[in-house]
Amino acid sequence: AxxxxxxxxxxxxxxxxxxxxxxxxxxxxxxxxxLVAATGLLLLLRTDLDSTYAGTVLPALVVxxxxxxxxxxSAINTxxxxxxxxxxxxxxxxxxxxxxxxGSIGTALLSTIFAxxxxxxxxxxxxxxxxxxxxxxxxDGYHVAxxxxxxxxxxxALAGGLLINRQSVRLAKLEHAxxxxxxxxxxxxH
Length: 190
What we know:
- By secondary structure, this protein is mainly alpha-helical.
- The chain has a single domain, classed as Up-down Bundle (Growth Hormone, Chain: A), CATH 1.20.1250.
- 82% of the residues lie in helices and 0% in strands.
- It contains 5 helices and no strands.
- Helix 3 packs antiparallel against helix 4 (131-163).
- The longest helix has 41 residues, at 4-44.
- The protein is elongated, with a radius of gyration of 20 Å.
- The two termini are 30 Å apart.
């Protein structure tokens, strides 16, 4: 059910990020990727108790994946640009470790917020909640988590757009030119 998201990540990181990074640089791609992924999360806010996978969840997963793949490829390339070839593995591993730590902390925080929303919604009801009320409370929890996640991705987009410097863009273009001239792929070492 979730396979479309990783497939979208693969497509966007290799096709969109790989092709556009040398032309526009990581600043634009992180900004755009963050906004695209946030849009996908906002699409999930349309989910209601009658929603279908194909009509609501699938399109959102594809959009989230396209945005995240663009961010991932740009982040790894930016973090490893200018690093000595001998240190490229360490730089890439550091980026991946930070992604895992950030993902773990984010998941823990969002799960806690989700559970609190569900608990609060159920506590607001008088008597034993019906199955429908329970389902609505869970859906409300998801909506809050999706909304917060979208907000975080907008902040990621803004941070990338404001904090990634022009030097990173210039180095990415130089690495791409060098890789093209030698026939190697610039991200192969990453």
